Amino acid sequence: MELQSNPQLLWFIGVYALIMVGLGFYMSKKISSSKDFILAGKSLGPFVLMGTLLATWTGSGSISGGETSVAYSFGIIPSFMLMVPTVIGILVLYVAAPKIRAFGKYTISGILEEKYGVTARNLASIIVLLAYVGIVSYQLKGFGFILNLTTGMSVEIGTIIAAVLIIFLAMIGGLKSVSQTDALSGFLMVGGLLITVPTIFAIAGGWDSIVENVPDSHLTATGGLTTIQLMGYLLPSLFLLLGDQNMYQRLASSKGDASAKKAQIGWLVIMIIISPSISLIAFASRSLFPDIEPGMALMATTLALPLWIGGILLAAAAAFIITTGNSYLLSAATNLTYDIYGKYINRNASDKKQLRMTKVFIVILGALAYLLIRFFPTVLEVQMYAYTVYGAGITPAVLAVFFWKRVNASGGISSMITGVVTTLVWEIVLNRPFELNSAVISVPAAFIVLIVVTLATQKEKM
């Protein structure tokens, strides 16, 4: 089957975009302080919190990278495995959520500073910016894919349009607005995926027909990857989720521990439904469209579906991408405001000044995200880079704060430096030897250094 753009699908995206812009304007009227902008006034109930956790996590990383690209490139079983890190991560956060709320910090940097000192805060701010700008960048390209499919415009122009829309929506209402659009997007996506799975399988001729049209390796346990290569795709998402500042900020924004727990249980249940659904749709797409860019696999099916089903799925995918981009852009901007601007440039800045600067930083970081995506050929590549920079540089040190009382500043800071440097050297300087994602090297290295340095420095003090 050949891809042919269908401009009628653009109506579904356009209507949803207008709804999000309208909701953003409405919620912006309720913002009176930086706390409202960044933590939604700590007012999120379980329903909205569940939706924003879901939509923030399941963005272009799943729709254009993650499950989609892996199912198309390597097969159904490796793609199903990508659900495992998410389930583990949600369960760990469920245990840690009360402790996260107790810290009451705007950023991960603030949590690390309390345990490890100012140096850790500064390092964390840099790592968050390196990772989150990367994550925003592939949301832009994912939306560019959508506009390419629907209108035939180039992915490059679509990416520019995405940058403008995502920056605008993040800047206008902060988390108070983003959380509401997230919830709406999340539940639309669940409905769209559940309708699409049986429909696209019927169009593709059923399971037997799909299997006949995909490579034999796509039905094996590893899809032609070695075990260690497969781990390179599983580890980054796990360690990003375990230390993701976005998730911490959302859990801190809930009305209380009870709301946070209910929301996380709902998030877990829905992820168990939608992650395999994305994998199945992309796997069917491999049969229908054997020669397309892997990141377009899920969205390409909208052209084979009946118009109303394809339109709902495409609008939902666009919404997920936009809300994820908003969330990570907003989160990175808070680091610049509170950990750099507020600490070193203007320590006496008023609340209104901090709010204005957060909006300025959203624009600056959004522009940087657009520039970054031009240097990575695929969404999956920049996704693995961004996840690993964060997962190796931040997560071991953060988890130790909550689960290992003996950890000290020397161990935490050494771990952060090790994680980032190892990732950058492996990905950029060495250009990924043996086609291994850096997570299989940098994450273990960061944990080992954390433990060894902590124990060694404690011994010296005795």
From TrEMBL:
Keywords carried by this UniProt record: Membrane, Transmembrane, Transmembrane helix, Transport
Molecular functions per Gene Ontology: transmembrane transporter activity
Protein name: Sodium:proline symporter
Organism: Virgibacillus profundi
Any one annotated GO CC term: plasma membrane
Pfam families: SSF (PF00474)
Keyword flag Disulfide bond: no
Keyword Transmembrane helix: yes
CDD domains: SLC5sbd
Lineage per the UniProt record: Bacteria, Bacillati, Bacillota, Bacilli, Bacillales
PANTHER family, sorted: SODIUM-SOLUTE SYMPORTER-RELATED, SODIUM/PROLINE SYMPORTER-RELATED
Similarity comment: Belongs to the sodium:solute symporter (SSF) (TC 2.A.21) family.
